Amino acid sequence: MLIVSCDNPSSRLGTNPEEAVTFQPIDVSNLPRPLDPVLAKGQDIYIQYCGRCHQIGKAGAPRTGKKSDWSTRRRKGLDLLIKHAIEGYESPSGNEMPPRGGEKTLSDTEVAAAVKLMLHLSIGNTDQ
Q: Domains (ranges, CATH) in the chain?
């Protein structure tokens, strides 16, 4: 399996170039700090690691704040989303999520917090 890093200049933007132009990414670093401690930790992790791909959809990453990018994934279940973020995932279309977003030092709890933040900002629901 080939893992594509979001720092790779050959990584693709979202799957639809027209949509990538019209979508206005969320600048998470300018948002108020969440009161929920899990989401606050997720914001820290997102700003440091996840935003470089998920802000604009590099390599097919679901874009933070884009409900349609997250709805199908969310319907498969929060546990599976977190598992894919921790272990890595290759979609049938060939898009890839490297394990822990390519940052091996992140704990399972930190990865899960970042996933929950992205869901919260994209569809507003992080409950099971």
A: 38-122 (1.10.760.10)
